[in-house]
Amino acid sequence: MTTAPWRDPTLPATARVDDLLSRMTLEEKTAQLYGVWVGAATDGDGVAPHQHDMTVEYDWDELITHGLGQLTRSFGTAPVDPVLGARALARAQRRIAGAGRFGIPAIAHEECLAGFTAWRATAYPVPLAWGATWDPPLVEEMARRIGDDLRSVGVHQGLAPVLDVVRDPRWGRVEETIGEDPYLVGTVGTAYVRGLESAGVVATLKHFAGYASSAGARNLAPVRAGVREFADVTLPPFEMALREGAARSVMAAYTETDGVPASADPGLLTHLLREEWGFTGTVVADYFGIAFLQTLHRVAGTPAGAAHAALTAGIDVELPTVKCYGRPLLEAVRSGEVPVELVDRAARRVLLQKCELGLLDEDWTPEPATAVDLDSTGNRILARRLAEESVVLLDNPDGLLPLAPDTRIAVVGPRAADALAMLGCYSFPSHVLTHHPEVPAGIEIPTVLDALRTELPDAKVTFAQGCDVTDPDTGGFEEAIARTAEADVCVAVLGDRAGLFGRGTSGEGCDATDLGLPGVQGDLLDALVATGVPVVLVLLTGRPYALGRWHGRLGAVVQAFFPGEEGGPAVAGVLAGRVNPSGRLPVSVPQVPGGQPWTYLQPPLGLAGEVSNLDPTPLYAFGHGRSYTAFAWDDCSATEPAELGTDGSHDVSVTVRNTGERAGAEVVQLYLHDPVASVTRPDVRLIGYQRLELAPGEAARVTFRFHADLSSFTDRSGRRVVEPGALELRLAASSADVRHTAHLMLTGPVRELGADRRLRCETEVSPALR
User: Fold this and answer.
1) Which of 299, 352, 402, 651 has the fewest beta carbons under 10 Å from its own?
2) DSSP-based helix, strand, coil % in the chain, nearest 5
């Protein structure tokens, strides 16, 4: 029997797919361009707004006779035992392959923003916590484990990472981002992509592009970003993740920029992404994003018009389920309204990806792994390490921390005894189980209260909730004050409740009017401080909150960004001293709730000055974080000004020594200051960093290999250029804590850069003499 060319694994993928496409009908081609959300609710009680409106009824058996592009979240829609879920997915894949003429299975995709969003799967720290670690290799290891778990149950594609750069911390999805700096987001996000892709899972970059710059920090609001902000802040993380991480999928953003929705923008999804950057993978729609071109953006009058606009722009796959790319598209192609070439282009990309995944091979099998453990011991160990590295000690002015082992501790606050305080909105317990209150979490999630009692068994620990996260009732204040008055120290555990679309204080669709602590938690903190007992503030949040009201009144301040299932022991370990805090802020912490939006990437007129009575200077700067040990930064190589061409490079080195009595980690950060440019520039911006783990007395020498490309920006004509002139390279412990400065002079002509520009500052770490 002769094997058809498209089944022959010895042929190039392009030849196989060309042969397959030549055999397919229009129905079979379009069937590859949409997913089906088997678990989607049609009763109006779905996960997201408009889900009921956008979900259409269909006959499953009839639908799959033409094939199917994707299966949407078979694990992430309802609590499913992982072993049974893997078997059910395999059965569905066999039915799909058996129903069509070509036997092609679907790509199964799932959310994996902070771990596989499935019942009984490890809930890792959220991306904002990854940013707080400043440790890309550790994030890569986490992503590889997530990918292995996805593959073990038959999933091919993960909808992560989020590469949006925070522009306004009131935005509900700040917890899903890595931080407010494009270099930090790009390097950490690229590490995640590498890890997921190394496990054979397709990483999906989102949200392309501009989503986080929505006006007023409202979810899906129009984006007001200018051309240079878009080019120099929004796009670089995506470019890095594609060029260095080799991500194979991109998700179009919901938002519109200057009147053009991303899902209908060929300049973004085709010209930039494919023609300039050379991307060859698939572009998928954010859920219902194609239909939104008709219903929300109103740039299309019909589902067929929305399909036409999206296909023209370059969206290959409609997710989460079929609407516009189904019958409306078929009829529009047959009537001549939509060129068949657009269908062929998208189908070719989808089938090439299926070919890469082995789904076109004759020996393909959907059978899952014989053993499935989505929350293994190894996963939990890694989740603990990530959580521990992500905890930021913001302040400890009098050395109150670590707590004494036999002290009297009053633990107070609505986040102290709630396991969900550890989890972001895309964790399975927060995302799905709130609709299934009868189902247990499926994973062990120690609270801060329980973990602190374990860490300090000789301490006398009492507890009072004090208040709810959002309820204005202050009836619990009296007990909280009484417990605090009896103690030597109060640990106030406050923060967010993750949720979706207004069902929480942080998460998708949970945008904030200002950056005051939710509910009456600020009033509770005032009451606790008024007792005179030293108060340690512990924040479990999805965004930074304004803390200037309590500056100088607290014994210590600890910040954790939804640190995952092992977050309780991690925070307790920092409080007790078992863990030496090493996290650094991926976002600035403001002084006051108003005066926003603000991130540290500000040109001169975005900084404090006499032209306004509002001072936006943060209380704690981007990159800030304290330790229980001390570090000395000496022997900097930047002693004399250096001259180099606009295509040149220059090394800057510094020796960092642990001068304290315990092991710890320091994060050496390199910032660029450009005194004069043809357009306004941020006063400082991160261009490199290196995390160092040092034993007591140990020293290491860090060398940053700066290249002039790293000083580039978008000029008035829209070109990315390197301009001659003076520069400063600032070695710093935060954006506001500069330790050494190297003065450079770039000489020569203005140099225009292309797609091959250098994106990162390479670093080298070598031992230093004691």
Assistant:
1) 651
2) 30, 20, 50
What is the DSSP code (8-state) at residue 489? E
pLDDT tens digits, one per residue of 729-742: 999 999 999 999 99
Residue written as tokens 């299975």? Answer: 105
C-alpha distance from residue 209 to each of 8, 251, 554 (Å):
38, 9, 40
Residue entry with tokens 């054979």: 200
> 50 pLDDT band (50/70/90 cuts)?
very low
Q: Quick one: average pLDDT of 120-141? A: 98
Distance CA 245, CA 121 (A): 25
Q: Give me the DSSP letters along 687-756.
A: EEEEEEEE-TT-EEEEEEEEEGGGG-EE-TTS-EEE--EEEEEEEEEETTEEEEEEEEEEESS-EE--TT
Q: Are strands 489-495 and 408-412 parallel, antiparallel or unpaired?
A: parallel
Walk across the sheet containing 535-541 and list its strands.
392-395, 556-561, 535-541, 489-495, 408-412, 460-464
371 three-class SS: coil
C-alpha distances in angstroms, 87 versus 60, 115, 167, 199, 450?
19, 21, 43, 21, 37
Tell me the β-bridge partners of 700. 656, 767
User: Shortest CA distance to 303 belongs to which of 276, 332, 277, 278?
Assistant: 332
Calpha distance 490→412 (Å, rounded): 7
pLDDT tens digits along 148-160: 999 999 999 999 9
Output the six-digit token pair for 21. Answer: 């496409």
| E-strand stretches of 452-523 | 460-464, 489-495
Average pLDDT of every residue of the chain? 94
Integer-rounded Cα radius of gyration of the chain: 26
- How many other β-carbons are positioned within 10 Å of the β-carbon of residue 587? 26
pLDDT at residue 51 greater than cutoff 60: no
